[in-house]
Amino acid sequence: MTNIHNTERKPNDNISDVIARQEFNDLLAHVGHDVEIVAYGKEPYGKEPFANVANVANVAIECMDCFTVIYDRDNPDYHA
Ligand SMILES: [Zn+2]
Predict the structure, then answer these.
(1) pLDDT tens digits for range 12-37
(2) Which of 46, 62, 67, 79 has most Cβ atoms within 10 angstroms of its Cβ?
């Protein structure tokens, strides 16, 4: 991995600055990568639209190059 990330803490950083810098670096690491948004749930996984949103358990932004979940959210209205 290239060393373009700046994770060094600055003297006046507050917790929001630290989190923002970490999230910025987390995203920056995937620039140029094959990124997809994928839904998981009762219906087949993948790109097909879900007929019923209540059947979607989780949606995730994933990097196919790093095999990493960049960001995801569970559906609060999912019924298993
Ligand atoms: Zn990546």
Answers:
(1) 889 999 899 999 999 999 999 999 99
(2) 62
